[in-house]
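Board notes, transcribed. Complex of a protein with magnesium ion.
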Amino acid sequence: MTRGICILGATGSIGKSTLDVVSRHPDQFRIVALTGNHRVAEMLLLCQQHHPEFVVMAAPEAAQQLRVLLRDAGLKNIQVESGPKALAEAASMAGVDEVMAAIVGAAGLLPTLAAVEAGKKVYLANKECLVMAGNLFMERVRQHQVTLLPIDSEHNAVFQCFADGKGVRRILLTASGGPFRTWPVEHLAAVTPDQACAHPNWVMGRKISVDSATMMNKGLEVIEAHWLFDLPASRIDVLIHPQSIIHSMVEYVDGSVLAQLGNPDMRTPIAHALAFPERMESGVSSLDLAHGPDLQFEEPDLQRFPCLALAFDALQAGGAAATVLNAANEIAVQAFLEGNLPFPRIAAVVEDTLGELQPAAPDHLDGVLAIDQLAREVALRHLARHGSGMQ
Ligand code: NAD
Ligand code: MG
């Protein structure tokens, strides 16, 4: 019996790594549904390689173009839909047993929740889901008794070292520090999107690459770890480790520290989660410690990386601060990628939005979505000020 897989965000970096792992094990998996946004040519290629039954392009015009291309390619049996309802349908349809949640940003929340509510096994790459709606999301995971396995490399590493969580003193999330760890701070104002996206160790989508450069990514991961492992901020530490060989660690009360190591390749956590509790080949080469780089560690510099401090503050503030943080960050990162905001002002937009909005934690999803929307509007206002003077 093969397991039916849906990949939300199949045309992205995690989506493609997942397809690479899955296609090494055709005896175990079949691709049932794939989703993308507007990269039609890439989705056509994925359809030719993996023959899904159901494909969603979030953008309607992209769905229309894909239908024509599939017909011309003789792939008439693949159903193509568009829009948010169709994304939720892909994640919850009969025939899908397991869902890789790899859409980037808040757009991933509703389809991932649809998978949870349909009782599918969920592999979670989309950390923004937990940052914006951690409480409600985890409540639904428990309610529907869903198996939720972390794909984010740090959380997957912690999961591998955590056992039943007994005797855990703290977890240590490692962070590479991104491309600007050693740059003079005064040079950061002139950073271009391509420089920010040139991560030293990982090849990732552009939004998470910018988040890694500001270290907001690590901040989002602290909040993600809080929800996944039920630990307060005081028991989650961040350690800079520029080589990205140790993917995270768990320290126990007896002083033991367990670490998970490996070459920086997302196919390892993906294969770990897909095979759990077994193991399977991922295509990742052996780690060569004898000939590899020296492993270094340092404390994060919060002056250089104010976004990390903002995320810790939002977690400690509680309420809906993390929802506001996530929304403002998405607006600021997009503006930076479009050339409308200087790199150091990403933190300023997030800080000003958090300063203006301190909503209580909503007890309904609609409340989360309303706060997300409001925070985006407020962030856009601050953006106009911080981005002024740019082309
Ligand atoms: P990516 O930009 O490469 O891919 C994003 C995917 O989401 C694409 O398939 C895109 O079509 C889809 N998408 C974007 N906007 C959408 C929308 N509005 N509606 C529907 N679909 C939409 O991103 P990525 O690097 O693969 O990251 C995906 C998620 O995984 C992010 O949440 C990221 O934080 C997380 N993650 C990524 C990595 C990594 O190594 N890339 C590691 C850990 C966690
Ligand atoms: Mg990570």
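Residues 126 and 377 are 23 Å apart (CA to CA). Residues 3-126 form a domain with the Rossmann fold fold (CATH 3.40.50.720).
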